[in-house]
Design brief:
The structure holds 2 protein chains of 2 kinds.
Chain A: E1 6-19, E2 25-27, H1 32-43, E3 53-65, E4 70-74, H2 81-88, E5 96-102, E6 105-108, H3 121-131, H4 136-150, H5 165-177, E7 183-187, H6 195-210, E8 214-218, H7 222-228, E9 231-236, E10 239-246, H8 247-258, E11 278-286, E12 292-293, E13 296-297, E14 302-310, E15 319-326, E16 332-338, E17 351-358, E18 366-376, E19 379-393, H9 396-400
Parallel strand pairs in A: 4-8, 4-9, 6-7, 7-8, 13-19
Antiparallel strand pairs in A: 1-2, 1-3, 1-5, 9-10, 11-12, 11-14, 14-17, 15-16, 15-18, 18-19
Helix pairs in contact in A: 3-4, 3-5, 4-5, 5-6
Chain B: E1 13-16, H1 23-32, H2 34-48, H3 57-77, H4 87-109, H5 111-114, H6 117-120, H7 128-154, H8 166-190, H9 193-207, H10 223-226, H11 230-243, H12 250-275, H13 278-281
Classes of the chains: A alpha/beta, B mainly alpha.
């Protein structure tokens, strides 16, 4: 018998993206009138080719995973990590290539798929369990264990809509954690619950590999990656940039070779993580003179401009915009937030702009990432993991001090006396 | 995890390829997920009347109310013929079959686009989603059937042996409902226009079916056009089963049976073809 659990052979995936307006891009969505008018054009010999843009989310990806492997899939947004997991979990078909998986597959592309807010916790356990592939008997057998793990026993017969969002995801994750697959595909679901719950969840994931299973794990958090993965695979623009290797080598490659570029990500308003009722249309860094810049300087003022569209005219006072400044490993250094509207005067505006003004950027020079989150009624509706990837430059006040190589992240104002 | 992966357990092998799966293998997979089909139908039933004051009573009220409205408008005001049976029970017997069809069509038609995450975040045979909608309407059918049996003595309608044909009629009724529902559901993934078209389709279809009136109203030389509508034979079958006051609708019923089966299989083919890009398009 073959030894591998996952074998991916030259998998490629093509998406057709079509621009609908000059502002928005829509992935593969179709409108009947568009297609009908295309038929007319074809009839009139006015074929407008190339209206859709072909986009290769994955090209020629191959790798193999063996029993006991926990492989971290590393890469920027749009590198193809999620597409790879979607193909392996059979949500979508590859355009070419093939993959063979030996063993029962469990995929956690999202926590709580199939959860319904009107149903009780108990009902949701059964439905969600069945959807991810457990039999009714299996769920019955593990029911107590699941409830215990989640810690929401008192609320089992309460509709999930009365749960706090934390309780809901904890329950959802607990169901998923008891699937006991031989091949587990996990996409960034660890940011659930408090530290001790996250620890339990990690142990569950590692448990799969200890029993001779294989885990593919996608996360932006390099600290979590290096804690649980033994190997890593770096993807870049849909291609394998660094083949499966020990996790530290992969992270090293990603952070030092792949990550050493200034990179302001273009924000496509309809990118998949930004297609809710409120969308972020612009995120720009401004300098003191309000000119667009790509640089952030330690010890200097900084200004972020964030524009949004609120096509459904939702009350903006119920939103919370969060700017997370992170280390390249994904640990949060600073968290700046406020609602998109503070007063009722601009509460229902269809679009608008807010500025975040930082008097003094007290972060030491080094690579950082900025993520944008937008919550509406405590649910995250926009999550742009890499709104900015770049460096904080050395500010003059540090140069003056002749400080050769500052360590750490925070720049605390200080002076020394005798 | 504490549980051991059994060393002797049969290793399930999944091969992922660009090609569309064959209908045979899709059906085989549907069979392995049959429990999920039941669980999702249950979910739909238990969700339907959550946070309503009358709760499950709605299952009883809905068909009764429709039949009362029909009776007042078509029976009393327009004096539509009802084959010499009390109009109330005449239309109720027809609605039995029609409600199963129309409710299933309306629910299944929008089922795939209702919870997009079920398509984009997890894999299982997606045909389960519209099928679960269709199955969930069987509860309403069962309740309506019981109401009919309760009403029959009041309208001096004897229980005939003809009633035994109902399970067979039900099979074709479900196949037709599921088939049309699956077709609409899969088209709706590509073009949301069908969400808005669907209510009109149901409405037109209803007037083209012998619900408020008897199929005998249709002139003999036009009846072949009328009978193209595959639900006609099934409704006629239900009326024959309950009242037995006319000849067995042999030809229209055979036609309905065949077209139900054909439509169901066509819907499977269409679904199988379109399913591969659901997650990309939806």
């Amino acid at each position: 018998m073959s030894t591998y659990t996952i074998r991916v052979e030259n998998i490629s995936k093509k998406y057709n993206i079509r621009p609908t307006t000059e502002k928005g891009w829509r992935r593969n969505q179709r409108i009947l009138s568009d297609d009908l008018s295309n038929i007319f054009r074809i009839l009139q010999n006015q074929v407008e080719q190339n209206k859709t843009v072909k986009f290769w989310a994955l090209t020629d990806v191959s790798f193999e995973a063996n029993p006991g492997d926990v492989i971290g899939i590393i890469g920027r947004n749009g590198a193809g990590k999620s597409t790879l997991l979607k193909i392996l979990s059979r949500v979508t078909k590859p355009t070419s290539g093939r993959a063979i998986i030996n063993g029962r597959v469990g995929s956690l592309l999202e926590v709580g798929t199939g959860f319904h807010s009107e149903l009780t916790g108990r009902e949701n356990i059964f439905i969600s369990g069945a959807i991810i592939g457990m039999s009714r008997d299996e769920i019955k057998k593990k029911f107590d264990e699941i409830v215990e793990f989640s810690g929401v026993r008192e609320f089992l017969d309460t509709p999930v809509k009365r749960f706090s969002s934390g309780m809901e995801v904890r329950l959802a994750f607990s169901v998923a954690a008891h699937l006991e697959p031989e091949v587990l595909l996990v996409d960034e679901v660890l940011a659930v619950g408090d530290a001790s719950f996250q620890q339990k969840s990690l142990e569950k994931i590692i448990g799969v590999s200890k029993n001779g299973g294989t885990v593919l794990f996608v996360s932006h958090n390099m600290t979590a990656m290096s804690a649980i993965c033994n190997k890593g695979l770096v993807l870049k623009n849909g291609k394998v940039a660094f083949p499966v290797a020990p996790i530290n080598e992969a992270i090293d490659y990603y952070q030092n070779i792949d990550g050493k570029q200034h990179n302001v990500q273009p924000l496509l308003p309809a990118a998949k993580e930004n297609s809710g009722p409120i969308t972020i249309t612009e995120f720009t860094l401004l300098d003191q003179n309000n000119f667009r810049t790509d640089n952030l300087t330690n010890g200097m003022p900084a200004r972020f401009k964030i524009s949004f569209e609120n096509s459904h005219r939702l009350p903006l006072t119920k939103t919370l915009l969060t700017i997370l400044i992170k280390t390249p490993a994904g640990d949060v250094i600073a968290n700046l937030n406020r609602p998109l509207a503070i007063s009722s005067s601009n509460n229902l505006d269809p679009k608008g702009t807010v500025y975040c003004n930082i008097k003094k950027l007290s972060i030491l020079p080094g690579n950082i990432r900025i993520s944008l989150l937008l919550d509406y009624e405590s649910k995250t509706i926009v999550n742009i993991e890499e709104a900015y990837v770049g460096e904080i430059d050395q500010g003059s006040h540090l140069l003056d001090k002749q400080d050769h190589f500052p360590q750490g992240w925070i720049d605390i104002e200080n002076d020394w006396t005798n | 995890m504490i549980n051991k992966v059994h060393p002797k357990a049969i290793v399930r092998q999944t091969i992922i390829e660009p090609e569309t799966d064959s209908i045979g293998s899709s059906l085989k997979e549907l069979w392995t997920f049959r429990e999920l089909l039941l669980i999702l139908s249950e979910r739909e039933v238990s969700l339907r009347y959550r946070q309503t004051f009358l709760g499950v009573t709605w299952v009883v009220i809905q068909p009764l109310l429709t039949s009362v409205i029909f009776t007042i408008i078509f029976g009393k005001l327009m004096k539509a013929p009802s084959d010499n049976v009390a109009y109330e029970i005449f239309t109720f017997a027809g609605l039995l079959s029609w409600n199963l069809f129309s409710q299933s069509l309306q629910r299944a038609g929008i089922s795939l686009t209702k919870d997009i995450r079920l398509i984009t975040k997890i894999f299982f045979p997606r045909i389960i989603i519209p099928l679960a909608s269709t199955l969930s309407t069987l509860i309403d059918f069962a309740v309506s059937l019981i109401i009919l049996f309760i009403l029959m003595p009041f309208y001096k309608t004897p229980f005939l042996l003809n009633l035994l044909i109902i399970p067979i009629l039900l099979v074709f009724n479900v196949l037709l409902a599921a088939g049309v529902g699956i077709i609409f559901a899969s088209l709706n993934v590509y073009y949301r226009d069908f969400t808005y078209v669907l209510p009109f389709v149901v409405q037109i279809w209803m007037y083209a079916s012998p619900l408020a009136y008897s199929a005998k109203l249709i002139p003999q030389n036009w009846s072949w056009v009328y009978n193209i509508n595959p639900i006609v034979g099934i409704i006629n079958g239900f009326r024959w089963a309950v009242f037995g006051n006319s000849a067995f609708p042999t030809s229209s019923l055979i036609y309905s049976a065949i077209s139900s089966i054909v439509i169901f299989f066509v819907s499977l083919v269409i679904f199988n073809r379109l399913e591969r890009s659901f997650a990309d398009v939806i």
